[in-house]
């Protein structure tokens, strides 16, 4: 009988990284030094030391003050080097100019973590920026820092209070991170009467070292944390935030309140943190992309944290059913629901029939379900029992107003059972004062969130739906955007861009721009260049009338501004007139040097189609961003648009379309046939691929893209390049790492059959399911250290994490085999490399289909993973292997790994030299 080792966590798929806690020295120190500790009443140094003493955390405290032998009765030391014991955490509370030397001393004695509460750094200008540069030059790679300009942090479960706040937070399951120390103290005061507890309470300051991503990962690993709440003023490292948030949001809700929505607030936030706040619209797109929920009010921030903790069931759609004993509150809740994007659920005929059996004759017969002012607990219970089963509803809000016949307490008792067992979220609004308090307590203890105001409850339902909607964008399996084996024609794109750069141009002509679109498989209207009037007539005769003439220029991008577009030209004479008109207009308005001729295109009817815009520009924090919406000449008037971060897949492309008003029309309206939305999704995916793969493109838009039931075709295009002075290394890159095409390469197995080894993609989920069906029990056990059932291995929630990866954090290679008999693709093996949160190394894992083992596939996958590790500048790659997995050990040795064997496990490690 095989003895299963104690370590059963599958590290490669351990989404929470439960076995790797990178910031232990800061959050759970054994010894703490306070640099700047003093006995001066009201000082930061004294307050921090007193807080540490007053809230025992199980460790030793060392005050550091060169002018005193003791502080608050504790022996003090002149500097950090004089402390006789190892120190895990240093809290630095001294004037900013002295901080670089203090950090240097900490690094020299091997301290792994520090909190710099001192202010006076980049928020004051160049002098402070230089101090930060000195600090990081010393600490980078040797010590992690929180701050500067922060309140500190608390770990309520261990008792650590490393802040200068006046009180200690209660322990709980809410992880709180704030960029504002003052906001921290306000939240702390609020938390006590509201009985809110925290797993961690962190003031992050100006994020010199540790940023949102580091702390989100930590709280994602922390078993005490159930949800994460953030007050944000600036995003900082966008890629780090997106990477961490997307991974953790799959298991723990992340709720953000972001300051700086208005221009004035953005300036205030910038002066506070010394950082740019960036575009608010782009930030919203980033939050949607990684499953983060954004709220606008402080009350909403913590109400959402509460409801997410109490209600694990999320609404599957935006439709709410309201049950009330008074019409007015139901109307107010409806207004709030609709205003924030929700919908009233239409009651099914069967539901109405069942309600008619016991409700009074004059009940509302619609949603909101007004069960009248004399409703007793039994009437509430029966109504909820029927309404919760209605197939049209995604959630319920039960409103109670205290009237003469109302019993708030007994009604709560009646409802709590049904609300707990329902498969849909149930919220409650017990309106009133002391009379309803007992009922509220009953519901809260039953994990039913209650609110005094029904409009607040309706808004929270919408937030719950929005959060689930964002998560679905991560969970849903997309389809392949391109069935063809060949990719874009990048050589044509490179040639066009180089030609423009060689002539000193940053603006491409319309013809050049369309050629780039065509190279990526985006359909374009036939476009012929004419440099003379006679050529224009000749080109028009080739195309066939009616035609369109547009200005050809290397300097003018908005042709309509100079009357550079002439439509519906029905014969040669009209073409001649249009050519002359465009030439004259351009010459008079901007000069003849801007006129190079015209392009001739067929005149396509817009009667049965829609004009759309698809474009991209560069955000200073997130890099390239995409826009989709209503196009045409009035695009800036209608401003019907959605923003998203590239790259897209088909699911994310559909999400982007759904955010616009034009989307409803594209589905078919007023007798018009629907646009092929699947084809439009794939076109958006191709466009996003173009944006991320061509970094020299600064701005690009297709306006209009003609969308009808018959076709999708780009009628006009505009591309602006970055100035060549920028330099390749400084070109902005996508905040989300695109599909790494450089790792797509063919390979031949020992049996002579060819495969393509490539990075995994979200669309691979169906292939991974089939792959797992080919595995024997032995292969499963050797890989997962357990006999995992097939149903668990192919669960959608698990495969989402495996296939839809963040290429910044990990890399998974698959061996893709095209079966010559069926023509279908099959995955024969998977190799995965997951970066550690703590050190600059990664862990690998591998699995090969049983029929294709001993074909050299495992060795080749590992060799390629090692090369990826080199490309990523990793210092090492490790793996944990079962002692009986001899084949995997031989593969590791063949590739150069060193093996360290124990009774049950073998630790493999490869040190990478650069």
Describe the overall structure.
- The chain is built from 30 helices and 37 strands.
- It is α/β, with parallel strands linked by helices.
- Helix 3 (99-108) packs parallel to helix 4 (126-139) and helix 14 (408-421) runs parallel beside helix 15.
- The longest helix has 22 residues, at 454-475.
- The protein starts with 23 loop residues before the first helix and ends with a strand.
Beta-strand content bin? 15-25%
Query: What's the N-to-C terminus distance?
Result: 45 Å
Q: What's the Cα radius of gyration? A: 32 Å
- Largest sheet entry: 8 strands, mixed
Overall structural class, as computed from helix and strand content, comes to alpha/beta
Mean pLDDT: 89
- Largest sheet, spatial ordering of strands: 30-31-32-33-34-35-37-36
The total count of strands amounts to 37
Query: Roughly what percent helix?
Result: 25-40%
Point out poorly predicted stretches.
Answer: 1-20, 268-278
Shape: globular
**Given the structure, what is the number of helices?**
30
């Amino acid at each position: 009988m095989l003895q299963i080792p104690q370590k059963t966590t599958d590290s490669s798929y351990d989404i929470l990284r439960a076995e790797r806690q990178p910031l232990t020295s800061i959050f759970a120190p054994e010894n703490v030094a306070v640099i700047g500790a003093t006995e001066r009443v009201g000082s930061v140094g004294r307050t921090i030391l007193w807080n540490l003493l007053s809230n025992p955390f199980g460790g030793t405290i060392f005050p550091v003050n060169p002018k005193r032998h003791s502080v608050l009765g504790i022996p003090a030391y002149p500097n950090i080097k004089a402390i006789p014991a190892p120190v895990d955490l240093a809290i630095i509370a001294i004037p900013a100019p002295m901080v670089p030397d203090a950090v240097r001393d900490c690094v020299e004695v091997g301290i792994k973590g520090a909190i710099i509460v001192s202010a006076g750094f980049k928020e004051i200008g160049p002098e402070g920026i230089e101090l930060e540069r000195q600090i990081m030059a010393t600490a980078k790679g040797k010590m992690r820092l929180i701050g500067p300009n922060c309140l500190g942090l608390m770990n309520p479960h261990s008792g650590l209070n490393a802040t200068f706040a006046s009180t200690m937070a209660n322990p709980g399951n809410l992880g709180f991170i704030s960029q504002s120390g003052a906001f921290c103290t306000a939240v702390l005061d609020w938390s006590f009467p509201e009985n809110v507890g925290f797993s961690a309470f962190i003031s992050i300051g100006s994020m010199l070292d540790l940023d949102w991503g580091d702390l989100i990962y930590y709280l994602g690993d922390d078993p005490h944390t159930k949800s994460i709440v953030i007050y944000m003023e600036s995003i900082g490292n966008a890629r780090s935030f997106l990477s961490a948030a997307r991974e953790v949001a799959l298991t723990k809700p992340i709720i953000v309140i972001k300051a700086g929505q208005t221009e004035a607030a953005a300036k205030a936030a910038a002066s506070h943190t010394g950082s740019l706040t960036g575009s608010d619209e782009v930030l919203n797109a980033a939050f949607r992309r990684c499953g983060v929920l954004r709220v606008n009010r402080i009350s909403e921030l913590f109400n959402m944290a509460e409801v997410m903790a109490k209600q694990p069931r999320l609404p599957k759609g935006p439709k709410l059913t309201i049950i009330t004993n008074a019409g007015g509150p139901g109307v107010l809740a409806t207004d709030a629901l609709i205003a924030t994007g929700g919908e009233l659920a239409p009651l099914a005929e069967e539901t109405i029939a069942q309600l008619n059996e016991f409700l009074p004759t004059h009940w509302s017969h619609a949603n909101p379900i007004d069960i009248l002012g004399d409703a007793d607990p039994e009437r509430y219970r029966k109504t909820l029992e029927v309404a919760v089963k209605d197939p049209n509803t995604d959630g319920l809000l039960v409103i109670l107003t205290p009237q003469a016949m109302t019993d708030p307490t007994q009604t709560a008792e009646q409802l709590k059972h049904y609300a707990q067992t329902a498969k849909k979220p149930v919220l409650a609004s017990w309106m009133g004062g002391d009379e309803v308090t007992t009922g509220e307590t009953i519901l809260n203890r039953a994990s039913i969130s209650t609110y005094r105001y029904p409009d607040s409850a309706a808004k929270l339902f919408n937030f719950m739906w929005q959060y689930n909607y964002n998560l679905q964008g991560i969970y849903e399996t997309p389809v392949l955007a391109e069935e063809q084996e060949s990719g874009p024609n990048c050589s044509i794109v490179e040639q066009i861009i180089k030609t423009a750069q060689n002539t000193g141009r940053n603006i491409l002509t319309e013809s050049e721009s369309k050629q780039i679109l065509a190279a990526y498989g985006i359909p374009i209207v036939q476009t012929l260049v004419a440099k003379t009037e006679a050529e224009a007539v000749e080109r028009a005769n080739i195309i066939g009338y009616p035609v369109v003439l547009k200005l050809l220029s290397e300097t003018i991008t908005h042709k309509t501004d100079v009357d550079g577009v002439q439509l519906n030209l029905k014969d040669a004479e009209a073409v001649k007139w249009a050519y002359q008109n465009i030439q004259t207009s351009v010459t008079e308005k901007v000069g003849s040097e801007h006129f190079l001729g015209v392009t001739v295109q067929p005149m396509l009817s817009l009667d049965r189609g829609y004009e759309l815009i698809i474009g991209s520009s560069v955000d200073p924090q997130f890099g390239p961003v995409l826009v989709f919406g209503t196009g045409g000449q009035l695009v800036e008037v209608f401003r019907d648009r959605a923003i998203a971060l590239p790259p897209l897949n088909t699911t994310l492309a559909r999400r982007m379309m759904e955010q616009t008003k034009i989307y409803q029309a594209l589905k078919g309206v007023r007798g018009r046939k629907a646009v092929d939305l699947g084809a439009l999704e794939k076109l958006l995916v191709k466009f996003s691929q173009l944006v991320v793969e061509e970094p020299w493109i600064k701005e690009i838009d297709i306006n209009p893209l003609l969308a009808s039931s018959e076709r999708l075709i780009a009628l006009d295009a505009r591309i602006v390049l970055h100035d060549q002075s920028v330099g390749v290394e400084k070109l902005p890159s996508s905040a989300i790492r695109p599909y790494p095409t450089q790792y797509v390469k063919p390979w031949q197995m020992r049996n002579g059959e060819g495969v393509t080894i490539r990075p995994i993609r979200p669309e691979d989920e169906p292939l991974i399911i089939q792959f797992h069906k080919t595995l024997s029990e032995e292969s499963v056990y050797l890989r997962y250290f357990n006999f995992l059932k097939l149903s668990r291995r192919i669960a959608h929630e698990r495969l989402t994490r495996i296939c839809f990866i963040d290429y910044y954090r990990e890399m998974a290679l698959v061996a893709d085999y095209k079966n010559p008999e069926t023509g279908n693709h099959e995955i024969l093996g998977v190799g995965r490399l997951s970066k550690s949160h703590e050190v600059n190394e990664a862990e690998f894992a591998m699995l090969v289909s049983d029929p294709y083992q001993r074909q050299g596939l495992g060795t080749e996958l590992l060799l390629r993973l090692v090369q990826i590790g080199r490309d990523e500048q990793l210092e090492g790659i490790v793996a944990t292997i079962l002692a009986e997995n001899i084949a995997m050990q031989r593969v590791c040795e063949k590739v150069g790994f060193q093996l360290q064997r124990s009774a049950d496990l073998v630790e493999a490690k490869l040190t990478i030299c650069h």
